[in-house]
Amino acid sequence: MTAYRNGEISHWMTARHEKNGPAGPPQRRTGNLPDEPQDLVIVGGGLTGLWAAYHAILDRPTAKITVLEAKEVGYGASGRNGGWLSPLIPGNRAVYAKAARKRGQDGAAAVASFQREMDKAIGDTLRVLREEGIEADQRQGGHLRVATTPAAMKRLELTYAADLAGGYRAEDLEILDAGAVKKRIAIGPALGGLLTRTTARVDPAKLVQGLAAVVEAKGVRILERTPATRIAAGVVTTSRGAVHATTILTCLEAYSGQVESDTRGLGKRDIIPVNSSMIVTNQLSEAVWERIGWQGHECLGDAAHTFVYAQRTADDRIAIGGRGTPYAFNSGTPGRGQVDARTVRTLTERLELFFPEVRFSVEHAWRGAIGVTRDWCAGITFDSHTKIGVARGYAGHGVTATYLAARTLLDRAAGQDTALTRLPWNDHDSGRWEPEPLRWLGVHGMYRLFGVADRWEESRHSQNTSLIARFGSRLAGLSE
User: Fold this and answer.
1) pLDDT tens-digit readout, 440-450
2) Are 450 and 140 contacting, i.e. CB atoms less than 8 angstroms apart?
């Protein structure tokens, strides 16, 4: 394999930096800390924080709002992800339904409401991008999940039924046979698939950087290279000094455990960073694309237990990601994102499985961290006494969920009773992760089991999901 870029945050962020040419990376936002108390301080310059800043400044154009970012806007998952603006709920529907029932709500209705709001968030995000002139290579081509074994096809059929029961509209879903899949994307071993029509592809770095520019133009202060070290009622302590605020929203996701706070949901055992790795190929020729198809620019995934996710980029590459080495001991984060050779090889082999007649080269590899709670469900909290809010735990389904979480946090901060504040992720208690080394053993054990299950199903062309995978899901808290 020829040499490739490794790390440097991500292909998306590197391309964004290089767009400036000889000028190098964009000018850093390193102004002075505000002297006066702020109406709102947002900790974290990713999509959740920037969407919160956007809607807050729209609601109150004269408000004093500051966003604090430890590195640079988009440094975390917001600038490294697979670029799926997807309706997938960030968590387990059964878990949310059970939590809703405990609060005296109709569990099924609560989950269906959650799904409708996720669907609406896709449309709202795309509308804002149009209205604000943010060009993020957005294209609503849907999401195609492909089965390459009979067991995986059965899972997709079950997913189709569960999605309809969980609030999806029938016109947004379609089960495809092998021929219909290959007419869209010529995936050699495809036995069938499930198409979700509402998903859109984006370039995540263009999205987060474009949103940052818009909120700055509206009067929001963004301070990069300003890591928060402690969060308490009315004050965020940073490496450069203290910032005082009436309301504080903590939007750190996988990095939540790095800040000292007594606030619920921010401890190292409340949320852990789970790694996901990506590679991007060379630009493919028109002749190759004629062979592959993919003219609809669908987001592409598979129904394996150790699933992958991919997109055809606006500049005609394939970007594909998967878990790789899933977790670093004691909740270590990925830094600038170097990827081990084994993971690069695994992702390349998945591409070669899908498209055996095409020769690819890897141009860039990187990894990022997603925030995962013990039950793999996201949660929104707001303490009306301290006026501190927290959003965390998207578990890899954050591009859409960040928009919805930001609006929910703002409604909570305003003390409003709205459809968003009644969604079942509000004040959801996910429990706590086990202490080390048990959580390292548990996470790695789960992924080992999933890998064994995939190999079992593929080698035997199994008709049913492996019991090994079912055990792994129970071990991880992914199923009831």
Assistant:
1) 777 766 656 55
2) no
